[in-house]
Amino acid sequence: MSSPGGLETNKIIGAILLAGVIAMVSGFIAEALYTGTIAEEKPKEKRGYTIAVAETAAATTAAPKEEKPVDIAPYLAKADIKKGEEESKKCAACHTFTKGGPNGVGPNQWGLVGDSWAHDSTYSYSQAIASQHGKKKWDFQTLSDFLTDPMKYVPGTKMPFAGIPDPQTRADLIAWLNQQSDHPLPLPKGK
């Protein structure tokens, strides 16, 4: 006659072994269902999906078409400064817009429109921007081109911003930025 403690130990070990056998058999079944084969056989065909569109798209992007900048003047003529102010809230994560305001991750933007690149002497600009100080100004068209895709327009900029593809949204923002100045520039008139 065996002791009651030994019988319980045997039951526990048997349960663990049974669970292991069930897990192993389940693994074999799952592999066979997924691959369509038994573990020792090689799959007869590739499983899953191949997206032909992705391959075609990669081939067509080899020689991208050079896009011309959008003339921002007609959009500025009908710009909505209130919408521009709303759009500026996205920029406020990195920039401030008040006169004498502090720099954030990016420079304070007060008086930007019409001023030179690297206009804020208290901010450490990327070499790509700083090298243009006194050579280029942030006019309406330059701002529009930059805001379309900053990293493409100025390779090496520290501004990791995807850009604003919609020209009217850019114009609204630029018109509002223009007002953040002691001497706003006159906006283009509508035709």
CATH superfamily of the largest domain: Cytochrome c-like domain
> Which class best fits the helix and strand makeup?
mainly alpha
Assign the CATH class of the largest domain: Mainly Alpha
Unreliable residue stretches: 53-60
Radius of gyration: 32 Å
- The run of helices and strands is HHHHHHHH
Helix content: 40-55%
Span of the ends, CA to CA: 108 Å
CATH structural fold name of the largest domain: Cytochrome Bc1 Complex, Chain D, domain 2
Extended strand count: 0
Shape: elongated
Strand content: under 5%
Number of domains: 2
Brief characterization of the structure:
The protein contains eight helices and no strands. The chain has helices at residues 4-35, 52-60, 73-77, 81-91, 127-130, 140-148, 150-153, 167-179.
Description:
The chain is an all-alpha fold and 191 residues long. The protein folds into two domains: 4-60, no CATH class; 73-179, Orthogonal Bundle (Cytochrome Bc1 Complex, Chain D, domain 2), CATH 1.10.760. The chain is 46% helix and 0% strand. It is built from eight helices and no strands. The chain has helices at 4-35, 52-60, 73-77, 81-91, 127-130, 140-148, 150-153, 167-179. It is elongated.
List keywords for this structure.
191 residues; mainly alpha; Cytochrome Bc1 Complex, Chain D, domain 2; 8 helices
Indicate the topology.
Blueprint: H1 4-35, H2 52-60, H3 73-77, H4 81-91, H5 127-130, H6 140-148, H7 150-153, H8 167-179
Helix pairs in contact: 4-8, 6-8
